[in-house]
Amino acid sequence: MDNVTHTLFALTLARTPLARAGRGTTVALVLASNAPDVDIVATIGGAPSYLTWHRGPTHGPLGIIGLGLVVAGLVWIARRGLGRDRDEDLEAPFAMLVPISIIGVVCHVLMDLPTSYGTRVLSPFDWHWFAVDWMPIVDFYLLFALAAGLLFGGTSTMGRRRNAAIVLVLMAANYGVRAAAHQQAVTLAPRLFGPLLPPRCDPAAEEGSVLDSWPLAVATTPPHTGTRCLVEIVAMPTFLSPFRWRVVAHLSNAYEVHDVNLLDARFRQPPTDAEVLWRTTSRFPNVWTPAVWTAATTKLGRTFLGFSRLPAARAIVDQTGTTTVRWTDVRFINAAPPSPNRGLQRDDLFTTVVRIGPDGEVIDERLGPGESTK
């Protein structure tokens, strides 16, 4: 989630019985709820470094404990230095600040996990990304509930705690609605894609799993040969409505994308033979040629493929024999079909370009519009 949401949630937690720990609880919760995003310092090493470390160890088990201890220590030292004339009995002791801060860090990670962006909750022991796909990065409904609870929290302790409890219930309801809507969007996939949806590549693959993870094995091994098949179905939330979803069919050679409104009256009726929803599906090729596999062995290629959940590959050979390999994460593109001249492109953090000469040597590699890394 965004840092405004993390901060508002921390302030809401500070109005619960956790505040009984003493003075310093609110500061500890706010700092701890934002501490995992300290990995932003990785941008000093450039965008590839940021992709390597973003939502990595600071969001894993060691980061949770380490950041909790650091935040507790900073708050305790600051309170000791600034509160010499205050009643020490009202100050939160270090032994209480530690669990309070760890709770703040854990809540940050748990709020990141249900987003389609995901987080690496097991790093540095396991660098796979995990996501539940219920929430967008910024949820306006969640922001409104948190802000309203703080603005109209009352002046008494009981009033503030009552409002905090109401906000937490509203948050749970919001998550519940999005979870149910996500499941419905995935269930609708056969109707959305119609005859375009092939059978699964692995018939034994688990369907309907709540927790998704990537990169998949198919991103690091040769693609399925022979007939076209389905790797997975992904449903991602949108920003404006919990009932509008982007459903992606990850195929062995392409991505099929379909935006759906779950409130559409057609979905309250059984499908008919005349139903042609699949005709509005957008298709993005994902063809892994030998040049693409060469590009995947570069440092930047490995970094991007380790980050990207739905990397669509496209290779173009110019008149000199130079091949330009471009990956774009389908999560971050518009669902409009690519133009014939441009293909699948997006000049930002979520596109990687590798150029390979006629002799098979890598000429340069870059992330989005950035400078070459070679």
Give the count of structural domains: 3
C-alpha geometry: flat
Strand content: 15-25%
Instruction: Give the biggest beta sheet.
Output: 4 strands, antiparallel
Number of strands: 10
Strands ordered across the widest β-sheet: 3-4-5-6
Overall pLDDT level: 86
Oligomer: single chain
- Rounded to an integer, what's the Rg over CA atoms? 24 Å
Structure class: alpha+beta
Helix-residue proportion: 25-40%
Distance between the termini: 34 Å
* Count of discrete alpha- or pi-helical segments spanning 4 or more residues: 10
Low-confidence stretches: 335-347
N-to-C series of helices and strands: HHHHHEHHHEEEEEHHEEEE
Write the layout of secondary structure elements.
Elements: H1 3-13, H2 25-34, H3 47-53, H4 61-82, H5 94-112, E1 129-131, H6 140-151, H7 157-187, H8 189-193, E2 212-214, E3 230-237, E4 244-251, E5 254-261, E6 282-285, H9 290-296, H10 299-307, E7 311-317, E8 323-329, E9 351-356, E10 362-367
Antiparallel strand pairs: 1-2, 3-4, 4-5, 5-6, 7-8, 8-9, 9-10
